[in-house]
Structures are given as structure tokens and as C-alpha cells.
Task: structure prediction
Amino acid sequence: MSERAPSRFAGVAWTGEGYQVEVLDGAGHRVVGPSGWAAGRVPELIAWLRELSGGQGLAVVLDSTNGLLDGPLTAAGLDVYRADPWLLPPRPRFGSVPAERLARTPLGSLARVTAEGGSLTGRAEEYHEAVRRGAPIQAAMTAAGRCFEHGPRDTPKVALTFDDGPDPVHTGEVLAILARYGARATFFCVGHHVAALPDEVRRIADAGHELGNHSWSHPFLPDLTPEQLVEQLDRTTEAVARVTGEAPTRFRPPYGGLSPEVLATLADHPSELTMFDVDSRDWTRPGPERIAANVLGGVRPGSVVLMHEGAGDRGQTVRALPSIIEGLLERGLEPVTVGELPAPRPDH
Ligand SMILES: [Zn+2]
Result:
């Protein structure tokens, strides 16, 4: 990352089709014309932004409902800033505020996003507070069978789940490994990537795996209005159904960002809220051995395991996967989809 104070500001807005970009200089003048990038062209977008940043210091500004880009951008060495809702005018029901608005947000008010801190860098306290307030409601939903966290503990099955895809590279790698062992899994996809990579979605479905809904743009859900949240869910469901002919029935919230307000909206939505009981922590990129140890150290019969296959370099997850599956099989645990786990009984 450059140490130089940025003299250029690239606002990156998301839409149903991809990303809109405006690049302004310190005086607020356009450095280049506004540009649009299809969601599948992220590598090219990154290369272009890197070129623009050369020697100048470029601040890339995203909003908090765009959780798919900061990982790849920070990994590429770009300086990424997040504009939170209280700095911005109301956004449309679907999409972020315009790119120009993001590029014009005063730098001093923005949060610098780091690779280590992730998309919600600087909002950890607020995040934990929202989840803490939501926890009793989530527990009540789980008890009532409205939220799935794991299957019964006497079922010799485990559900591996892969979030944030599909991905042009890692989806194929994950599918090949699963096929080698005859294992099935669940893929919680983001609508943005589904629209960009329909062939990958089709491959997942054709191989007998389950598709789930992981929102459209990977927003921090407490920042959305109920209408915006429903739009994120329904558009993603439609995008998957258009490709596979079948609508996903499960939703997994980005970051597990479940405030009471978010849970109230989800309780009225037909999607089944689907969480996990084992976190591989693969997004911290601790090395394939550590990822496998996190999974195999935490897994029990009926477990649902959280892993990632998209929105960044998931090579470590891919390299960990064979040891994870072999470790499960050695213990007599069959890797299945979440839908193939029986519903938990109230006394478990
Ligand atoms: Zn995610």
C-alpha cells in the first residue's frame, strides 16, 4: 500500500449488472470519464485502478453494501476506504449510491479497510453489539425450527458449505475435489457473481450440489432497510433460478450480521436462515494446515462447516479441502449438502 496521501479518488458503485466507477482528482475534476464494468471483469477493473494509482496515490471508495471487492482490491495493494451510511444520502432500493457521490465523500470521514481487518474494519464493536442484541431472537428462531445451525448429533453426516462464489477459478477446483471423493456440498452464492458466471452455477447444480442464497452484493445487513434486504434476497433467488430452474431455499447472512431488525425481516421471508457450527476461519488465510485443523478440530456429527470459495484468493481453502474430506471419511462422517442433514430435534 502506498504511504503517499491520495490525490485521486475512485468511487466504485455496484448495480445489478456490475460496477460503475468515477475517478476524480483532489479538486473534484474527472481524471477519466465514468466507466462501467461487468461483475465478471473484476481482475481487469483492478488492473485499471492500479494503473491509475501509479505514482499518484489513489483512494478507492466503496460503500458498506459492497462487500465483494475490498478483499481483491486490498490483496492487489490498492488503498481501500469504506463510506458508511451516515455519510451518504439514501441509496436506491437496489444498488449503491452513485460512484461520483462515493468519490466526493471527504477522505477524513472514511474508514480505511485493511486486508487483516476485512470489510468491516473499524466497525467491530458495532457489529458485535448488533449480533449480541440479535442472539436471543436467533436462538428462539433456531428452537422454533426457523434457523438451521446444525443437524442431529447422532447423524454420521457433515455439511461443508462454501460462501461468496461462484468464482472463475476456485469453483472448478472445489468441484473437482468434491467429485474425486464423491462428496456433496452447499454453495451459498452472491447474486453479483451468479449473474457474471452462470456457467459455474450450472456446473455446481449439475454435479448434484445444493445452491444457497448469500445476498446480492454481500452488504453488512444492518445497514439495509427491510425493503433493500428483501430485494437482495429475491434478486439473488431469481438469478439462481434463472440458471438452474430451481430457486434456492436457504439464506446465509454475510458476516453473520444478524441484528434484531434484520432477524425480524428474515423471519417474514420464506428463505430458511442457515448458519453453521464450525468456522474454518479460512478468510484469515492462516495456511491450509490450520484451516484443516480448525475444521477437523471442531467438527461433530451433524455439523455445518463454513468455508469460502469466492471474492478473493481462496487457494488455501482449496488446498485444505482434500485433508478435510479425508479426515471426515476416516471418522465415518459423510460430506453431504445442508438439505441432506435431517432437521435437528428439539432436545439436541
Ligand atoms: Zn460471505
Summary: The pocket of zinc ion is lined by residues 163-164, 214, 218, 254 (CB under 6 Å). The longest strand covers residues 30-38. The chain has two domains: 8-113, 124-340. The mean pLDDT is 95.
